[in-house]
Design goal:
Blueprint (H helix, E strand, L loop, with lengths): L15 E5 L3 E2 L5 E2 L2 E8 L9 E5 L26 E2 L4 E2 L4 E6 L13 E2 L4 E2 L9 H15 L6 E5 L1 H12 L6 E5 L7 H15 L17 H15 L2 H7 L19 H14 L4 H13 L10 H5 L5 E7 L7 H13 L4 E6 L13 H12 L4
Parallel strand pairs: 5-8, 5-11, 6-7, 11-12, 12-13, 13-14
Antiparallel strand pairs: 1-4, 2-3, 4-8, 9-10
Main location: cytoplasm
Pathway: Amino-acid biosynthesis; L-methionine biosynthesis via de novo pathway; O-succinyl-L-homoserine from L-homoserine: step 1/1
Subcellular location: Cytoplasm
Length: 379
């Protein structure tokens, strides 16, 4: 933590909790009788309530997107490089809202919440979620905040899917959709990666059918493996090569199966260990399933152009050359469908070596384009 807050930081921020008593019917056919959403805001809502921007988080994200919770916090929010005074998502201009989605493990109602029907933690009994469920809950938060229309809904990866779904489900309620490093639906390969990650968790003896809380344990091995698999797909071969190469952690090879010999092995184990201590296994399973299920074209005769024809927003779509999890070809599918539906769309393909994780990084060309697009929004 720096001794002084940077001038372009939103500063010290506090999460807020919104409680909703109105039941939420979910796509799976089950209902949440009541729920909480934890969120943060940055900047000021103008008198016309026309400058609000919604940030949708990706798989392991949460509400803390920018600023610091305390002067002791080591790192700022997960997208602090993009949100703040003078930054691409400029809080001198916009009122920015970011929430932890239902099913999350950072304060919003999820597997670690009490199931009112049983008086016990939901655990593995929490309902299966779909992206549209999050969009409906976000719309209710917008109602609570007095926001009729978002100036923009912005998201990367799974967040980009939410931005797309907003444009389809609530076309009158957003002016711009910014879809970054995303896809109109997962490929078979992506579903396969998610299934391997889920099976690592579900087959862990400490998972206990998702009720591990009452056993005073966590499926740590499964969650570590799931994160390791995921992390491999978030980085490009070039990024891994430049970061680790074949560098050894030890002075010599040990010729056994248990030693951590290569730097990349050490890195993956560290990432898995750190993640297993802060993220809920049931939430990971829920989030990956929501990714798998996302397919907005399914309700429109499998025609993405028909689905996006509902939209009234303008679009910015961004992809990254070395992102093989959500490749530029998948972004171009979205762009082609938008053009076919006669929508206004700007597209940027950024030459970046970082892989899927590039959407979180302050790459100059990417941030220049994002800033330029958002600066043109008339409030």
């Amino acid at each position: 933590m720096p001794s002084e807050l940077p001038a372009d930081s939103v500063g010290l921020v506090s999460p807020q909790t919104a409680h909703f008593d109105q039941p939420l019917m979910l796509a799976c056919g089950r209902e949440l009788p009541a729920y909480d959403l934890v969120y943060e805001t940055y900047g000021q809502l103008n008198s016309a309530r026309s400058n609000a921007v919604l940030i949708c988080h990706a798989l392991s994200g949460h509400h803390h997107a920018a600023g610091y919770h305390s002067l002791d916090e080591r790192k700022p929010g997960w997208w602090d490089s993009a949100i703040g005074p003078g930054k691409p998502i400029d809080t001198n201009k916009f009122f920015v809202v970011c929430l932890n989605n239902i099913g999350g493990c950072n304060g919003s109602t999820g597997p670690t919440s009490i199931n009112p029907a049983t008086g016990k933690l939901y655990g593995g009994d929490f309902p299966v979620l779909n992206v549209i469920d999050w969009v409906h809950s976000q719309a209710r938060l917008a109602d609570l905040l007095g926001i009729d229309v978002w100036a923009a809904v912005i998201g990367g990866s799974l967040g980009g899917m939410q931005a797309m779904q907003w444009s389809i489900t609530y076309p009158e309620r957003l002016q711009h959709a910014v879809v970054i490093a995303s896809a109109p639906k997962l490929s078979a390969q992506n579903i396969a990666f998610n299934e391997v990650a889920r099976q690592a968790i579900l087959s862990d003896p400490d998972y206990h059918g998702g009720q591990f809380y009452s056993h005073d344990t966590i499926p740590k091995r499964g969650l570590m493996l799931a994160r390791m698999v995921g992390h491999i797909t978030y980085l490009s071969d070039a990024a891994m090569g430049s970061k680790f190469g074949r560098e050894l952690k030890t002075d010599k090879l040990n010729y056994d199966f248990h030693s951590v010999e290569f730097q990349v092995e050490s890195y993956l184990r560290y990432q898995g260990e750190e993640f297993s201590g802060r993220f809920d296994a049931n939430t990971y399973v829920l989030m990956t399933k929501a990714l798998d299920y996302y397919d907005p074209a399914a309700a429109y005769e499998d025609n993405l152009s028909q689905a996006l024809a509902q939209a009234k927003a303008d679009f910015l779509v961004v992809s990254f050359t070395t992102d093989w999890r959500f490749s530029p070809a998948r972004s171009r599918e979205i762009v082609d469908a938008l053009l076919d539906a006669k929508k206004n769309v700007s597209y940027l393909e950024v030459d970046a070596p970082q892989g899927h994780d590039a959407f979180l990084m302050p790459i100059p060309r990417y941030f220049t384009a994002l800033r330029g697009y958002l600066n043109r929004i008339e409030l």
